[in-house]
Automatic annotation (TrEMBL):
<keyword id="KW-0663">Pyridoxal phosphate</keyword>
<dbReference type="InterPro" id="IPR015421">
    <property type="entry name" value="PyrdxlP-dep_Trfase_major"/>
</dbReference>
<protein>
    <submittedName>
        <fullName>dTDP-3-amino-3,4,6-trideoxy-alpha-D-glucose transaminase</fullName>
        <ecNumber>2.6.1.106</ecNumber>
    </submittedName>
</protein>
<dbReference type="GO" id="GO:0030170">
    <property type="term" value="F:pyridoxal phosphate binding"/>
</dbReference>
<comment type="similarity">
    <text>Belongs to the DegT/DnrJ/EryC1 family.</text>
</comment>
<keyword id="KW-0032">Aminotransferase</keyword>
<dbReference type="InterPro" id="IPR015422">
    <property type="entry name" value="PyrdxlP-dep_Trfase_small"/>
</dbReference>
<dbReference type="GO" id="GO:0008483">
    <property type="term" value="F:transaminase activity"/>
</dbReference>
<dbReference type="GO" id="GO:0000271">
    <property type="term" value="P:polysaccharide biosynthetic process"/>
</dbReference>
<keyword id="KW-0808">Transferase</keyword>
<dbReference type="InterPro" id="IPR000653">
    <property type="entry name" value="DegT/StrS_aminotransferase"/>
</dbReference>
<dbReference type="Pfam" id="PF01041">
    <property type="entry name" value="DegT_DnrJ_EryC1"/>
</dbReference>
<dbReference type="InterPro" id="IPR015424">
    <property type="entry name" value="PyrdxlP-dep_Trfase"/>
</dbReference>
Amino acid sequence: MVVTNDEELAKRIKLLRAHGSNVKYHHSMIGHNSRLDELQAAILRVKFKYIEQWNNKRRDKANAYNELLKGLDIVTPTELAENKHVYHMYVVQSYKRDEIISYLKEHGIATGIYYPVPVHLQEVYKPLNYKLGDLPVAEDACTKTFALPLYPELTDEQQKYVTSYIKEFFKHNK
């Protein structure tokens, strides 16, 4: 805990604890994820015994999405044999991202864009003199990645609902 009457120091501390960001996904300094208080820590301590079970459910849901999205113009995440992805998010890629998101929203399906600005173009890295075009793969990824709903309690029916509208979108938008 930090207590101060210095407004500038308070602003800087708030930036530091929120990844160096005061506007979501726009970073003016290098920071940390330090927003865990004692109450949240106590809750997490209880929840921690379920983490493996929840991660397994997420992996199962991700595998189901991979199967349900096969054959569509959408790139699904891959998992190397020697690694174990926990699918905190299920992030896919499509050049039609914005249209897909809009279409899904019309049908009550929430999605998320988590990294709209490439790291090298963040304010905090301006002194490195990167400019648009310097890292084209990262810049391209930021225009086509988005996350589909994924959580341990997601039902098979809900996944089929989500993917049915993605399939419908591609049927009408080739």
